[in-house]
Amino acid sequence: MIYKVIDVPVNDPCEECVMCMRLKLMEIGFVAGQDIEIQKKQFGLYVVNMISKQGHVEQTIALREEEFSRICLAEK
Questions:
Q1: DSSP 3-state assignment of 22?
Q2: DSSP alpha helices (H): ranges in 1-76?
Q3: 10 Å Cβ neighbour count for 36?
Q4: Which domains does the chain have, with CATH numbers?
Q5: Quick one: 56 exposed, middle or buried, by C-beta within 10 A (0-12, 13-18, 19+)?
Q6: What is residue 72's three-state secondary structure?
Q7: pTM value?
């Protein structure tokens, strides 16, 4: 199933992480409008495909539970 990233919200209150998780996710490509496919969950990691506008897999990323849970998604 394909999902569209709606947002990567700021923690409220901000936890002032040494490496801001929100910025890290956005640098990887999790920005509003990006299509993703959740390939599988294994070894405690979510394997996520970033989908191009043409419907092809651009890259595959593994995310920890706490990273994945920060992404707001909507079914496409």
A1: helix
A2: 21-28, 65-68
A3: 22
A4: 2-75 (2.30.30.90)
A5: exposed
A6: strand
A7: 0.80
Task: Give the span between the Cα atoms of 1 and 60, in whole angstroms.
Answer: 15
At 1, list the tokens.
């199933």
E strand or H helix at 62, and its extent? strand 57-64
Work out the number of other CB atoms within 10 angstroms of the CB of residue 27.
Answer: 10
Q: How far apart are the first and last CA of the chain?
A: 8
- Residue 61, both tokens: 């990323």
**DSSP-based helix, strand, coil % in the chain, nearest 5:** 15, 45, 40
Are 57 and 49 in contact by the 8 Å Cβ rule? The answer is yes
The pLDDT profile of the chain, 76 residues, written as one tens digit per residue, is 889 999 988 877 877 777 788 889 999 999 999 999 998 888 889 999 999 999 999 999 999 998 999 999 999 8
